[in-house]
């Protein structure tokens, strides 16, 4: 978003005027459907938004068959809205209908298990979706209509919710990640509860709910990474953009965090009504997929990170791929994940990197030189990149390292459990990734950490 000199007071007036002239587009979501635990499939940011938009319009229409663009018995069983309305309300700013169709199919792949004292039900989230243009889908004229139907149990939850929470399409449009939207819905439910806190649940429970991954998947990532990569960014989004404030509460057993809950409060002032950012940039999505990611994985990156950060990271990885003075990357995907975590701070440095030039900057004999400090820091970065790889990708790299260090006294067979081997390997892999350091590298390192060469 471009910076302007508009005062905060003017922005607040604009936001209030926007909410007065445009209704909040509220819908009722049964509490049973908040924080769904998926058994199959995966809920992403866009599929979460699409499902909420479908709920909103179904409740507005009240009866299937209204606006049906074709006169068939089946058409009377669908809710119908213009496809453009679906894209607008889900903040889908792209003309790529094929990608949107794949997201609609993903909704059909999501399987839920619902169980009460009297009933056990296994059901899909959405039973059927269809696109219709009376003039022909391949035509460039005419109106494309989106039709959708829910399975019986879900239909009842949507159309006749018992205990429910009101949500606004406006606020969901501001959120950029699926985990933020999932946490927002759960916490928004408890904002009017006298306790102002959610239920206490295990870390594994929250992992499934916030990531949208099926509960049957392998062991979730360690808590410290889940907190860093999912919880903290989600809370930051919610607190900055919505009508509630959220705080994490950790319940520990000894030093281990085992259970979590969240405290929630309504904000005292309305949030600024900034327009929703596009959810999917198709060109950027394709560039990320070129590194070896699936469409779903690339979509998650686009949803969870700002476009500027992603474009910088993509440029950083692409520049490294094209660097002729270093060996080919073993895994562009792992390097991209590491780059995102580092913020791609060195992207411009790599692009202007010149031929390797060694320059030793001396210091007092009893202190490490600037070069030594630089190499140590870069070795740690190299080790971090290596850890982003899976076991299948790591094995040939370590074998290559062993083959090139046969004369070394270190116990290489112990792998990285040996401190000496770990030190040698991290320095070796850093050279494999980035080659010999240049003058530009050293200067930027000095500026970043505040060293003073003497």
Pairing-aware structural class of the strands and helices? alpha+beta
Helix percent band: 40-55%
Mean of residue pLDDT values: 77
The radius of gyration over CA amounts to 26 Å
The fraction of residues in strands falls at: 5-15%
| Biggest sheet features | 3 strands, antiparallel
Textual characterization of the structure:
- The chain has 454 residues and is an alpha+beta fold.
- Helix content is 47%, strand content 13%.
- The chain has a three-stranded antiparallel beta sheet. It has a three-stranded antiparallel beta sheet with strand order 3-7-6.
- Strand 4 and strand 5 (120-124) form a beta hairpin.
- Helix 2 (45-61) packs across helix 4, helix 7 (178-190) crosses helix 9 (223-241) and helix 10 (282-289) packs across helix 11.
List the SSEs and their pairings.
Elements (H helix, E strand, L loop, with lengths): L7 H14 L4 E5 L7 E3 L4 H17 L17 E4 H7 L7 H13 L1 E5 L4 E5 L3 E5 L12 E5 L2 H8 L4 E5 H6 L3 H13 L10 E2 H9 L11 H19 L2 E10 L2 E11 L15 H8 L5 H10 L2 H15 L10 H11 L4 H5 L18 H18 L3 H13 L15 H16 L4 H11 L5
Antiparallel strand pairs: 1-8, 2-4, 3-7, 4-5, 6-7, 9-11, 10-11
Which key features would you list for this structure?
454 residues; alpha+beta; three-stranded antiparallel β-sheet; 18 helices; 11 strands; 13% strand; globular
């Amino acid at each position: 978003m471009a910076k302007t000199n508009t005062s905060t007071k003017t922005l607040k007036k604009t936001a209030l005027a926007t909410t007065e002239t445009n209704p909040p587009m509220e819908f009722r979501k049964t509490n049973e459907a908040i924080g769904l635990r998926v058994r199959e499939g995966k809920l992403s940011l866009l599929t979460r938004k699409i499902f909420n938009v479908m709920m909103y319009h179904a409740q507005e229409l009240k009866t299937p068959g209204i606006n049906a663009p074709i006169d068939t018995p089946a058409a009377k069983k669908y809710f119908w809205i213009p496809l453009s309305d679906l894209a607008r309300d889900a903040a889908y700013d792209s003309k790529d209908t094929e990608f949107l169709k794949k997201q609609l199919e993903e909704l059909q792949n999501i399987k839920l298990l619902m169980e009460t004292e009297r009933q056990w039900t296994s059901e899909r989230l959405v039973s059927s979706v269809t696109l219709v243009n009376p003039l022909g889908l391949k035509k460039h004229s005419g109106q494309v209509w989106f039709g959708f139907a829910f399975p019986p149990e879900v239909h009842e939850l949507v159309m006749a919710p018992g205990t429910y929470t009101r949500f606004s399409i406006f606020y969901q449009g501001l959120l950029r990640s699926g985990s933020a939207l999932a946490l927002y819905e759960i916490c928004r439910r408890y904002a009017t509860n006298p306790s102002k806190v959610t239920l206490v649940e295990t870390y594994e429970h929250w992992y499934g709910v916030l990531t949208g991954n099926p509960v049957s998947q392998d062991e979730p990532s360690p808590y410290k990474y889940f907190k860093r990569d999912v919880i903290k960014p989600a809370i930051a989004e919610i607190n900055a953009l919505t009508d509630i404030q959220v705080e994490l509460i950790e319940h520990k057993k000894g030093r281990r965090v085992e259970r979590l809950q969240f405290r929630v409060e309504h904000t005292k002032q309305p949030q600024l009504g900034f327009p929703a950012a596009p959810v999917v940039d198709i060109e950027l999505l394709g560039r990320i997929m070129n590194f070896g990611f699936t469409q779903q994985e690339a979509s998650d990156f686009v949803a969870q990170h700002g476009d500027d950060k992603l474009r910088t990271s993509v440029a950083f990885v692409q520049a490294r791929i094209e660097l002729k003075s270093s060996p080919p990357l073993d895994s562009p995907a792992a390097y991209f994940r590491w780059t995102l975590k580092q913020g791609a701070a060195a992207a411009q440095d790599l692009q202007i990197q010149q031929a390797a030039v060694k320059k030793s900057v001396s210091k007092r004999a009893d202190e490490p030189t600037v070069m030594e400090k630089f190499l140590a820091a870069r070795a740690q970065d190299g080790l971090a990149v290596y850890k982003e790889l899976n076991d299948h990708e790591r094995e040939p790299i370590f074998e290559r390292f062993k083959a090139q260090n046969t004369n070394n006294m270190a116990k290489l067979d112990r792998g990285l459990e040996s401190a000496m081997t770990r030190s040698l390997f991290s320095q070796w892999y850093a050279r494999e990734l980035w080659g010999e350091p240049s003058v530009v590298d050293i200067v930027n390192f000095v500026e970043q950490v505040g060293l003073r060469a003497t």
